[in-house]
Amino acid sequence: MTGGALARVIARPAAGPADDADRCDLCGAPAEAGHRHLHDAGRAEVLCACRACALLFTPGEAGQGHYLLIPRRRVRLAPVPTDALGVPVGLAFFVPRADGEVTARYPSPAGATRWEVAPEHWAEVVGRCPPLRTLVPEVEALLVNTARGRQDHWITPVDDCHRLVALVRREWRGLSGGDRIRPAVERFFTDLAERGEDARN
Q: How high is the mean pLDDT of the chain?
């Protein structure tokens, strides 16, 4: 993300109001409340887009251009067996890339820690969870939260994942995270459930 876009995206929930600082990163026009985001494939950044600029790009066409419109779907999945992916903590997200590779990240007080997932391990997980075949490369992710016994598994837009990374970084205190991080993460997933659909049944 660009510094300005990142600061604006992480400062509020996805459906939160725009403020005077919200500008389209393409044309500079004001970005209205609930504006869309684009993935800059060349720089691996997320950009704010006004309505007019967002209309220039088609969702679900990842790999077809320099700027990719980030979808808005949020789908809660049945628990996904992710042990093969080597998640070192209970909170992580996985983004398939246009070249077929998968990048994994987990939030930390220093930002997002990144590693590459072995293709055969990702194929094993997708084989057990067919909805993951519909992930749009670069712009959608599998978001997993198994911390403290939770079983939250979601298909989400990548801007939601960046927002979660920034939330953890902002709320973390001390060595163990302090007493603010857990409620903040729980609010994030509660908000996700209110805005998404449930495909567990």
A: 82
